[in-house]
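Lab notebook, design round three. We kept the backbone fixed and only want residue identities now. Task for the bench partner: fill in a sequence for the structure below.
Input structure tokens:
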């Protein structure tokens, strides 16, 4: 389950890497991306600014509207649910990243473990996106079981990573073709277990 990732390249570098048009308007982005915060997404041939997480609208005990909660991860086995199915069928995207983090250790003492592709300055995770009334354009990262991958030593789930040869299949293929790409990464992974405390950033969100 990914609640934090790094994207340390500029929008122009992302556009060149993915052969896309930069449409961010020169906006600045943090190197670490948290749920509910803006990130870069490659959608419809453009590098765009979107909010990480679909808004989940909640109500209080008296029926009053509460602040929406960002649902930032979509389980691959739930993509046919009402919450995700229209976006999965019609609006799939690529999420550029340079690494993602998982929390490890005892409760209250958890530290960040970073995972990335060795010798790759930038890579893509599978995503879905939509327009929302609350935050405008927003996106979620698709997660799958990590069984059989080195990431399983860190967490039972991981982002669906897409090699260059799979980009078009994810963004332009049929839902059936895209679903066939939802598997644990079969290549090498670099795992960096750090002493950096997990706490201290934005609050974690959720996965549906």
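Proposed sequence:
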């Amino acid at each position: 389950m990914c609640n934090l990732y790094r994207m340390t390249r500029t929008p122009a570098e992302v556009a060149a890497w993915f052969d896309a048009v930069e449409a961010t308007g020169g906006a600045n982005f943090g190197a670490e991306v948290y749920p509910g915060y803006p990130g870069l997404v490659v959608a419809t041939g453009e590098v765009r600014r979107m909010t990480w997480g679909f808004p989940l609208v909640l109500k209080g005990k008296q029926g009053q509207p509460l602040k929406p909660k960002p649902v930032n991860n979509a389980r691959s086995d739930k993509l046919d649910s009402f919450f995700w199915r229209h976006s999965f069928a019609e609006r799939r995207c690529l999420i550029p990243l340079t690494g993602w983090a998982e929390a490890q250790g005892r409760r209250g003492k958890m530290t960040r473990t970073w995972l990335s592709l060795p010798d790759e300055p930038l890579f893509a995770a599978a995503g879905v996106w939509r327009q929302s009334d609350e935050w405008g354009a927003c996106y979620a990262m698709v997660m799958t079981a990590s069984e059989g991958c080195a990431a399983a030593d860190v967490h039972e789930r991981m982002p669906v990573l897409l090699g260059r040869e799979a980009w078009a299949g994810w963004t332009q293929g049929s839902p059936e073709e895209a679903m066939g790409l939802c598997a644990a990464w079969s290549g090498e992974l670099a795992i960096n277990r750090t002493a950096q405390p997990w706490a201290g950033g934005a609050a974690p969100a959720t996965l549906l």
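Keep this in mind before ordering anything: The longest helix spans residues 11-17.
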